[in-house]
């Protein structure tokens, strides 16, 4: 990290405006960025936090077509949801703008034009798929066909969601357009490319030699790209939604979203600081920190820096690019297309007033060095066992005891004993460790240090027992509670980056106005004889019922996805009619049905087949209560050779169908028939 700087520009990856923000976005980018900015502000530093919505690109046009609205309708809707929900969570942007703004279009166009006029770009012609009926080139996601690897007939031009294979649109068998369902053809089209290879050596020196302090996942991914040698990358594409390419003869072409979006950091800075924005981007005494997700490392560490190098004019490269790994949800990868996510706006609705709980849990479990898993059970445990039982408990005890023994006025601090001095030293050590961790972007360790201060407070009260001292030594009680209230003031500072709402509430109870980071570790913050507000609980326990409701929601989504993604198995090889005709399919009436002992899946049926009573064992115990099947009619194969299952001789096979969710449904006639009736 740079040692000497006058100001800091913090940028956050632009969320894509085709859906709301989920906990993966928050844990990966927005919460750590906000924590860092709040920390710098507390230190009194000049810092600006830039954010905005990424509103161009193919996924937005696809969603618009699916809903029968315009792309602008889509981005207007989700920009508002994203902006409002992040503001409610306390993500303290100085500006949160969008890439459909006029200033962004102007800035992105000027950026392209400067590189174009300098002769930076290369013009390449290639063959791309074209929809003759729609009269337009197709992005990969607009092409469907048969997967060459698994045979699924619903593969997209970039990926087969049935088998997970990455594809090129030209790999598909019988490709057709998602717009018109018409077959597609190959046509030539020309685009401008940024020759990343021309900047490879400069990037190698800047990253591999100059930024070994970057997180291992960032440094390692950059090294892998550089070791494979960089290739030219298209900066334009054929599309009608985006910033138009500002070159004569480029009608129907827009700036590729990966080129367009990072310029949004510059245009958003211009929007809030029209006269001084260059100080943050071009002054060598400024530093730029890009908070991004794991999937954006290459764009922010390779591509965007190459763009800035090509542009010149004093643009500074980022000083650090803190990137977390991925956050999973209940053991599965978060997926917007499968609705497998905890959406921020829904969380705020379901857990009103609990913004800090989510912030705390996502920080304490942050995927800083490896992928981590969010579970609702852990969410509840961290709230109940840490925020409530440690932090909230200490603050409440200190406040309540002060009201009880001193009428809500801060008592004067008397002579300090060894136990008091030891506490103060431990708090100062934890505060120092928190600062060091935040300077290094180690937010998970930083919040642990803050919680350690609360743990020290609980331990201190347990050891000093002011409720017992009150019987004999009120002077000592005054000192213990003064020290405890000073520790509460320290907690309001230590937790400010992480829990801004609770910290503000705590300061209100303590009668504190403005605090600074430099005050952390001091034990003279709260003035003697000042009035405390009435104590309020900072946190409350989260019930089992609230957690079960969220878990049941995810269970429903999982079942819906199974049904939505169900694809019938390919037809089995043909059999001749004579072979099929040998199967004796009949209808029988269930006389008895019971579970097979020590077999979770098996039921024993006694069937009236019109000739006699036969026993059939079937593996459907998990799907039916045997008592409900007595008297029902079922279809079965009568002429299979008998076989023993768990010691029971089974004389046939009952027919059932398997649903997308794995459940089995018995095959039954639509109307009653006589037992033994053959299926024709």
Quick recap:
This protein has 680 residues and is an alpha+beta fold.
Describe the structure.
This protein is an alpha+beta fold. The chain folds into four domains: 7-119 and 258-329, Rossmann fold, CATH 3.40.50.620; 122-192, Methionyl-trna Synthetase, domain 2 (Beta Complex), CATH 2.170.220.10; 377-570, Isoleucyl-tRNA Synthetase, Domain 1 (Orthogonal Bundle), CATH 1.10.730.10; 577-666, Beta Barrel (OB fold (Dihydrolipoamide Acetyltransferase, E2P)). Helices cover 41% and strands 17% of the residues. The chain has a five-stranded antiparallel β-sheet with strand order 19-18-17-20-23, with no helix packed on it. Helix 4 (102-117) crosses helix 8, helix 6 packs across helix 10 and helix 17 packs antiparallel against helix 18 (500-510). It is flat. It starts with 6 loop residues before the first strand and ends in a 14-residue tail after the last strand.
Strand content range: 15-25%
Tell me, what is the CATH class of the largest domain? Mainly Alpha
Return the CATH topology of the largest domain. Answer: Isoleucyl-tRNA Synthetase, Domain 1
Strand order of the largest sheet: 19-18-17-20-23
What is the overall shape?
A: flat
Radius of gyration over all CA atoms, rounded: 33 Å
Structural class: alpha+beta
- In total, the number of strands is 25
Number of helices: 20
């Amino acid at each position: 990290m740079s040692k000497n700087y006058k100001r800091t520009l913090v940028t956050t990856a632009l969320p894509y405006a085709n859906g709301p923000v989920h906990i993966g976005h928050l844990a990966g980018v927005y919460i750590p960025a906000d924590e860092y900015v709040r920390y710098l502000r507390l230190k009194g530093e000049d810092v600006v936090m830039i954010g905005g919505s990424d509103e161009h690109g193919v996924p937005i046009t696809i969603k618009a077509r699916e809903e029968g609205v315009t792309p602008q309708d889509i981005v207007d809707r989700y920009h508002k949801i994203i902006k409002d929900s992040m503001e409610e969570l306390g993500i303290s942007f100085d500006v949160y703008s969008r890439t459909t703004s006029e200033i962004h279009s102007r800035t992105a166009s000027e950026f392209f034009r400067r590189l174009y006029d300098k002769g930076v770009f290369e013009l390449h012609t290639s063959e791309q798929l074209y929809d003759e009926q729609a009269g337009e080139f197709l992005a990969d996601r607009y092409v469907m066909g048969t997967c060459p690897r698994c045979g699924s007939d619903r593969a997209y031009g970039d990926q087969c969601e049935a088998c997970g294979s990455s594809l090129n649109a030209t790999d598909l068998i019988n490709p057709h357009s998602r717009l018109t369902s018409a077959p597609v053809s190959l046509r030539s089209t020309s685009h401008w490319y940024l020759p990343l290879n021309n900047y490879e050596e400069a990037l190698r020196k800047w990253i591999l030699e100059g930024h070994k302090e970057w997180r291992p996942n960032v440094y390692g991914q950059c090294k892998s790209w550089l070791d494979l040698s960089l290739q030219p990358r298209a900066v334009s594409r054929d599309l009608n939604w985006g910033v138009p390419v500002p070159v004569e003869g480029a009608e129907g072409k827009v700036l590729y979203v990966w080129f367009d979006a990072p310029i949004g950091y510059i245009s958003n800075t211009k929007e809030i600081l029209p006269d001084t924005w260059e100080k943050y981007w071009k002054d060598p005494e400024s530093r730029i920190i890009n908070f991004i997700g794991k999937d954006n490392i290459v764009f922010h560490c390779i591509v965007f820096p190459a763009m800035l190098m090509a542009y010149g004019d004093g643009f500074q490269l980022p000083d650090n690019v803190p990137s977390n790994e991925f956050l999973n949800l209940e053991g599965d990868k978060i997926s917007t297309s499968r609705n497998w996510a905890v959406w921020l706006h829904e969380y705020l609705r379901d857990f009103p007033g609990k913004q800090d709980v989510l912030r705390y849990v996502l920080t304490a479990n942050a995927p800083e060095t490896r992928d981590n898993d969010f579970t609702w059970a852990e969410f509840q445990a961290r709230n109940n066992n840490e925020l409530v039982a440690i932090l909230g408990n200490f603050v409440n005890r200190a406040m309540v005891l002060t009201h009880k023994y001193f009428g809500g006025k801060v008592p004067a601090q008397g002579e300090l004993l060894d136990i008091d001095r030891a506490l103060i030293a431990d708090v100062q050590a934890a505060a120092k460790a928190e600062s060091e961790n935040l300077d290094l972007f180690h937010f998970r360790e930083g919040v642990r240090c803050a919680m350690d201060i609360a743990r020290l407070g609980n331990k201190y009260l347990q050891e000093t027992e002011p409720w017992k001292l009150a019987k004999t030594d009120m002077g000592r009680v005054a000192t213990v509670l003064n020290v405890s209230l000073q520790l509460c003031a320290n907690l309001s500072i230590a937790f400010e980056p992480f829990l801004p709402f609770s910290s503000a509430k705590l300061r209100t109870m303590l009668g504190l106005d403005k605090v600074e980071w430099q005050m952390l570790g001091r034990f003279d913050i709260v003035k003697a004889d000042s009035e405390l507000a009435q104590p309020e609980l900072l946190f409350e326990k989260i019930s089992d019922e609230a957690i079960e409701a969220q878990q049941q929601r995810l269970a429903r989504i999982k079942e819906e996805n199974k049904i939505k993604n169900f694809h019938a198995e390919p037809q089995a090889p043909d059999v001749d009619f004579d072979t099929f005709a040998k199967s004796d399919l009949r209808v029988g009436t269930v006389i008895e049905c019971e579970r097979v002992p020590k077999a979770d899946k098996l039921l024993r049926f006694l069937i009236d087949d019109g000739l006699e009573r036969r026993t059939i064992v079937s593996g459907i115990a998990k799907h039916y209560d045997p008592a409900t099947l007595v008297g029902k009619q079922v279809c079965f194969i009568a002429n299979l050779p008998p076989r023993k299952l768990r010691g029971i001789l089974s004389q046939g096979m009952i027919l059932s169908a398997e649903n997308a969710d794995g459940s089995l449904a018995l095959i039954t006639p639509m109307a009653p028939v006589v037992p033994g009736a053959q299926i024709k």
